[in-house]
């Protein structure tokens, strides 16, 4: 496993841990997605570079194989012509090209195997990105739902619940009853006061009548003398 892959595994593992402790999972996921996008771009560049390198290796291997076959044919022609020395020279170059072909073929196979691993890692990164992105959409929807619920709760705090409406009218009924009782009490007090005035007036009138009668009697008695 490459260092690149180990780094990605550690990051993914840390994401799972940090999501459980994060107060803002969407922001944390966005950071992870940004890092993953950078890694995908880097991996795609490596794939392109590896593809170009494999093409060069293939050209070198093909050229070595072509020259090897060509020198072997030249050696056969030299032998037919009785030119053993020329045949040996051609075979020597053939051996050199065989060695070159083997070397470049080995490099080509190694690069091809690495290319397969890199393409697999790139596909894994893309799948990982898509999976986390889908999770991001889900958590974003949950956070928006939570935000709206909090706003609704804040808006409803000043209004109370429907169960408080009867209590509110009960309190109003009590206050109105108190006002009515106070008004009735004041009316009763006024009536009582008026009754006292009337009684006092009657008492005074009776006293005056008695005094008037007494004076009249006194005058009558004086006249007779």
From TrEMBL:
Per the database entry, which stretches of residues form a coiled coil?
A: 40-74, 101-135, 169-225
Q: Which domain of life is it from?
A: Bacteria
Q: Does the keyword Coiled coil apply?
A: yes
InterPro entries this protein is in?
Answer: PspA_VIPP1
Q: Which UniProt keywords apply?
A: Coiled coil
Question: Known PANTHER family for this protein?
Answer: MEMBRANE-ASSOCIATED PROTEIN VIPP1, CHLOROPLASTIC, PHAGE SHOCK PROTEIN A
Q: Which family does it belong to?
A: Belongs to the PspA/Vipp/IM30 family.
Q: What is this protein's name?
A: PspA/IM30 family protein
């Amino acid at each position: 496993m490459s260092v690149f892959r180990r780094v990605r595994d550690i990051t993914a593992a840390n994401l799972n841990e940090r999501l459980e402790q994060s107060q803002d999972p969407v922001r944390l996921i966005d950071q992870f997605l940004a890092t993953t996008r950078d890694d995908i771009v880097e991996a795609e560049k490596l794939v392109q570079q590896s593809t170009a390198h494999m093409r060069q290796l293939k050209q070198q291997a093909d050229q070595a194989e072509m020259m090897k076959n060509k020198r072997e044919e030249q050696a056969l022609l030299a032998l037919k012509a009785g030119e053993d020395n020329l045949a040996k020279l051609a075979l020597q170059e053939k051996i050199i090209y065989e060695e070159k072909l083997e070397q470049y073929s080995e490099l080509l196979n190694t690069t091809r195997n690495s290319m397969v691993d890199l393409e697999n890692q790139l596909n894994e990164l893309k799948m990982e990105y898509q999976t986390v992105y889908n999770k991001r959409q889900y958590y974003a929807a949950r956070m928006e739902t939570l935000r709206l619920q909090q706003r609704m709760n804040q808006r409803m705090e000043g209004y109370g619940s429907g169960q408080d409406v009867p209590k509110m009218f009960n309190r109003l009924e009590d206050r109105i009853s108190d006002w009515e009782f106070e008004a009735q009490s004041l009316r009763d007090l006024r009536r009582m006061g008026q009754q006292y005035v009337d009684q006092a007036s009657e008492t005074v009138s009776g006293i005056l009548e008695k005094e008037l009668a007494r004076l009249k009697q006194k005058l009558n008695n004086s006249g007779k003398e």
